[in-house]
Write a structure and sequence with these properties.
Blueprint: E1 2-4, E2 7-13, H1 15-24, H2 33-38, E3 41-45, H3 53-56, H4 62-71, H5 86-92, E4 93-95, E5 101-103
Length: 113
Amino acid sequence: MSIVNRSLVPVRGKQPYVDWINTYDPDGSGTTLSEMKEHPSVYLVEPTEALDPERTILPAYQAALFEIELESWWEDRTAWPRYESPEVFHAWFDVEFVEVVIDLCGDPLGYEE
């Protein structure tokens, strides 16, 4: 068991994101807001003990997270909404920060590009 030198950032889609996904869902099965809440994307960022990481850390990642989340559903960038401001990100996604990440596995961390 060891503490990982990263913070964890779960990102959950809100209704505008769900609506967008369902517009371009190739299999037509439909995604629900409840599914988004149950299955967040999780990102590792630099370790933080900041009092307000959403204000101090998140701005550096918002545009990239917005693109990654959209690309995970639809790769045609012409169908993407424009990322114009942090307000757009917050309208589409809920974010939280988890300061302590503990690795309970004995295996070394692996990476895929």
